[in-house]
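Thread amino acids onto this structure.
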């Protein structure tokens, strides 16, 4: 039986890689719904190629435009719009798997809807888990959902834990970080870096927001929190290791001295295919590693003095409650202000730290409290920038 897949954020970098994997396996997967925020022309192309039952866009005018583009091609995809429809296509009875690849907090509600509906969730949208932590994990457990990490590091950790699912004998998680485009830059140099420089990641081609997060190491901070929830650990159980080549995607260190890792070319189709087919393996279209051309693999410690993001993330996780949601919201606002050239690169981490200081942290007892903390932090950060 074919698996029905909803791809949230289909027009993004992860969404497109997911469609590439699906296109290689039409015998296994069938697209139930594709969603996009604004890139209607691209979404129309994807609908024509993949023939989903539904397509969801942000608003009525985008829906009208998409409908017209599809009519011109005699395509039968039904076009829907609005945030509620994202939840509907993520939780529909017919759906087996949901690729959560919307960027940022906007992905939380549909991803949570998939968890509550007991789906297999392919989690790329780390911000959703960072914001809602325990609430999200409870929804997964209580509804029998399956949570498969797509973030390459977490996928690598998941793979390195095969056969050791109860974590017996695990000593430490080694979370690798490329270090981003400014790995070796001085504080002085970082003062004047531009958005164009920040989004140029040395190894990965990704959306703008995560590219800036990689440059500030906020991405690794978000991933630290993500790993805590996914693997039931705390920041002290995780060591961040800078590995500029992005060939080792993360590792697990065991008490007997063994270190197990997952390696591969930096191509998101590997973790996507692993998550989709798990526990089986399928062709992802990724060329095998060519060891004769790998000159060397380097590992080094992160520079906490230059990149405060990791310590800030650990602080937010340890503070608990709504702190990670505040951390995430402040970062989202800061990144978009940096991309619009309203604040400097170094101001991103400063703004996040000051927002964590300023906003009262509450127990994250329900979704309303989390969304309200998200809104408060956004408002505070926007006012600071203004
Ligand atoms: P992207 O910017 O390329 O794509 C984002 C997608 O989300 C687009 O389809 C867009 O239409 C949709 N979207 C944006 N705002 C929306 C909104 N308000 N409502 C509904 N949809 C909206 O981003 P990406 O690089 O594909 O990253 C997606 C997620 O995956 C992020 O959470 C990122 O951290 C995570 N991730 C990405 C990579 C990568 O290689 N790109 C790797 C690991 C994790
Ligand atoms: Mg990652």
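Threaded sequence (386 positions):
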């Amino acid at each position: 039986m074919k698996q029905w897949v909803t791809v949230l954020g289909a027009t993004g970098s992860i969404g497109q890689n997911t469609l590439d994997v699906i296109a290689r396996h039409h015998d296994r997967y069938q697209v139930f719904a594709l969603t996009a925020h604004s890139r209607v022309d691209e979404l129309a192309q994807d609908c024509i190629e993949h023939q989903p039952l539904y397509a969801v866009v942000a608003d009525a005018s985008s829906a009208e435009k998409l409908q017209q583009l599809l009519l011109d091609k005699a395509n039968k995809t039904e076009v829907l719009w609005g945030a509620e429809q994202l939840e509907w296509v993520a939780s529909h009875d017919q759906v087996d798997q949901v690729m959560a690849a919307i960027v940022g907090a906007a992905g939380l509600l549909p991803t949570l809807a998939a968890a509550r509906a007991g789906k297999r969730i392919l989690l790329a949208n780390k911000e959703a888990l960072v914001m809602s932590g325990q609430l999200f994990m409870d929804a997964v457990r209580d509804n029998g959902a399956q949570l498969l990490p797509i973030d390459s590091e977490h996928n690598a950790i998941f793979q390195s834990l095969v056969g050791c699912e109860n974590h017996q004998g695990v000593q430490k998680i080694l979370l690798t970080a490329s270090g981003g485009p400014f790995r070796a830059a001085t504080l002085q140099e970082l003062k004047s870096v531009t958005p164009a420089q920040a989004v140029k990641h040395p190894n990965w081609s990704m959306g703008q927001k995560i590219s800036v997060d990689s440059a500030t190491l906020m991405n690794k901070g978000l991933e630290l929190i993500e790993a805590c929830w996914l693997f039931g650990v705390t920041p002290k159980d995780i060591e961040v290791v800078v590995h500029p080549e992005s060939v080792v995607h993360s590792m697990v260190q065991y008490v007997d001295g063994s270190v197990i890792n997952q390696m591969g070319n930096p191509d998101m189709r590997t973790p996507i295919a692993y998550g989709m087919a798990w526990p089986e393996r399928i062709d992802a279209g990724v060329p095998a590693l060519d060891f004769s051309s790998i000159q060397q693999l380097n590992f080094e410690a992160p520079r906490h003095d230059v990149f405060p993001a990791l310590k800030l993330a650990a602080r937010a996780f340890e503070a608990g409650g709504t702190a990670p949601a505040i951390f995430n919201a402040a970062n989202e606002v800061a990144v978009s202000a940096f991309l619009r050239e309203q604040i400097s690169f170094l101001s991103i981490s400063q703004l996040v730290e000051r927002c964590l200081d300023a906003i009262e942290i509450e127990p994250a007892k329900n979704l309303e409290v989390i969304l309200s903390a998200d809104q408060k932090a956004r408002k505070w950060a926007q006012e600071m920038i203004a």
